[in-house]
Amino acid sequence: MTADIEIRNVNKHFGAMSVLEDLSLSIKAREFIVFLGPSGCGKSTLLRMIAGLETVDSGEIAINRERIDHLPPGKRGIAMVFQSYALYPHMTVRDNMAFGLENIGMSREVIDARINEAARILEMPHLLERKPGQLSGGQRQRVAIGRAIVKEPKAFLFDEPLSNLDAALRTRTRLELAQLHQRLQSTMIFVTHDQVEAMTLADRIVVMNNRRIEQIGSPMEIYERPATKFVAGFVGAPAMNFIDATLDRSSGNATARFSDGISVRTAISSDLLADDKYSFGIRSEDVRIVPPGQGNADGVVDVLERLGERTLIYIRLGDGQQIVGSDVGNSRVAVGHKVGLAFDGQKSHLFSAAGRAWHAREA
Amino acid sequence: MADRLTMPRTAMATVSVRAPSVDIYAPQWRNFVFVAPFLFFFTTLLIFPLLWGMWLSFHKADTFSSGDFVGLGNYVRLFHDKVFLQSVWNTFYFVLLTVPTLALIGLFLALCLNRRTRTAAVLRTLFFSSSVLSVTIVTLIWRIVFIPNVGLLSTIYGWFGATAPAFISDPSLAMIGIAIATVWWCIGLPMMLFLSALQQIPQDVYEAAALDNANRWQTLRSITLPSIKRTFILVIIIQIVLQFQLFGQAWLMTRGGPNNLTKPIVLYIYDTAFRRWDLGMGAAASEVLFILILIAAMAQYLVTRNKADQT
């Protein structure tokens, strides 16, 4: 069972504080959507409004073109996995999974069949008679997912379900969630502030900030063509480099000039750009380390971060600004070295004062 | 260079071997000083009277002398005394009347008032406020309510041309009258214990239940009540221990009457020891009460000990 979800002009206030403003979003059936954003951006509130755990002040939410925002949570045909798992502590795993089905009067045979099938999918038949207190964090997580699966919902909602797991288990569970989505082919909405989870799981990411949607797009669209300066800075680790620049729009493509005379020729058409003052943005992997004098600029190495497959190099420019560049894993650069920086203008971005982004034309 | 690096390491190793490690949790005699004041009062005010009471219960004693050793004589007399047996029955009847009522009304109030509204906060304070009154005030209030002809109850019944039940003088109603006053007086503690237990149930468990299609009744039966089961047992046991010690209400409202029907064990002890000056038999009755309360307290210990299977 799967469903498309339509959110139209939704608003939400807590007292005098506005949490979501005129938000609209269409989610296609079988899609894995991730709401990504910093704490307090409204992503969990939006998820809880879809679940029916928060009221909608104005606007509509529809599942399969049927309006559901006035229905109680249990009547919406959705299942939710909570950050804290929210298992019933006094019930066994089997009873936890059966509770929702018993409440709608389903027959014992069907309930047992569904529980056994979910336990098989999640490889936890041996846990069925245990209580949540006897399970590890990862096992509780599985039970929470199992409790959602047995309902055969129209859509699965996940509210930061991996944040209580340790790093190794988080990576494994992430992979399992991706496999589960492929297997069940259900609509899934996943809330996180972790961009790696968003990038790896999502068909489409909804980046939210400050009560609004900043951008909706595939992970690579979000990464390569961020719609705003916020998205560019929020997605990607390390964050994109931003340098204040004046534009030279005399030729077809704009050239960005920085305060200490450095200039980089971008692949962004001058015709698109009206102002002279922009923020020049470039990701660390598009800043190569070259011998001094051979790149666009020279600087001194402040800090090195060796990640194994690559080395992140934090370089102080002549005017005091810090730029993060990237080199091979076994880079010979050391702290205090003078190095050259080669900016890949083809992959650079420009951001207006209002935060709007411009990129090179798509190939 | 190599020597300079290795030398200090050797020195450090030597030091670490010589220096004894300090166990900060090791018991030390000087710590006794800190518990000595408590131990002094605990021994003189609790242990000593307890043992003396036991000793007295095996002796024929009055206020002027502790006389001959009589063995179980006081206990034999006690269990042949119809008034004592009546007082044991009265106490059990009172516990049976008050404890389930306190637990159920306390739970009901807690369920109703477990919300973050101003009204709920005011009502919580109001229901708890009776607990801070002294027994004298409580019984005074309820005497005013129950007093025949001019009492509040009589007045209200009078409006409808009916006669109010005689809660103080009717043999079948007197204990119920004391129980009503007691429930009104003591309801604050069970309500607060239930409230604190209810507030410890995570909100997201209720949200999960809402998503699981549970209606109010299913949520109460399957989520709330199992979650506060331990508190429910705790309230029952605390109240059993407390209500076994009924004295003030019975003494001030009915003086144990009519015909000893509201005389609890503590009042019997008071009468025997301090009005009839039969200290030995009074002590024996105290020991019987002590054992009854001990059984309830042990039950509390056993219930709270097995916390592990709660999570």
Key traits:
heterodimer; A: 363 residues; alpha+beta; Rossmann fold; OB fold (Dihydrolipoamide Acetyltransferase, E2P); 6-stranded mixed β-sheet; 6-stranded antiparallel β-sheet; elongated; B: 311 residues; mainly alpha; MetI-like fold; two-stranded antiparallel ribbon; 15 helices; 2 strands; 71% helix; disordered N terminus
Strand content of chain B: under 5%
CATH architecture of chain B: Orthogonal Bundle
Please report the first level of CATH classification, the CATH class of chain B. Answer: Mainly Alpha
Sheet having the most strands of chain A: 6 strands, mixed
What does this structure look like?
- The complex is a heterodimer of chains A (363) and B (311).
- A six-stranded mixed beta sheet of chain A has the order 6-7-8-3-9-10, sandwiched between helices.
- In chain A, a hairpin with a 5-residue loop joins β20 and β21.
- With 363 residues, chain A is an alpha+beta fold.
- The longest helix of chain A is centred in the middle third of the chain and has 18 residues, at 167-184.
- In chain A, α2 (93-103) crosses α3, α2 packs parallel to α4 and α3 (108-121) crosses α4.
- Chain A has helices spanning 43-51, 93-103, 108-121, 137-149, 167-184, 195-201, 219-224, 229-234; strands at 5-14, 17-27, 32-36, 58-63, 66-67, 78-81, 155-159, 187-192, 204-209, 212-217, 241-248, 253-257, 263-269, 277-282, 287-290, 297-306, 310-317, 322-328, 338-343, 349-351, 357-358.
- With 311 residues, chain B is mostly helical.
- Chain B has one domain (75-310): MetI-like (MetI-like fold, Orthogonal Bundle), CATH 1.10.3720.10.
- Helices cover 71% and strands 2% of the residues of chain B.
- In chain B, β1 (59-61) and β2 form a beta hairpin.
- In chain B, α4 crosses α9 and α5 runs antiparallel to α9.
- The N and C termini of chain B lie far apart (59 Å).
- The chains are: A alpha+beta (363), B mainly alpha (311).
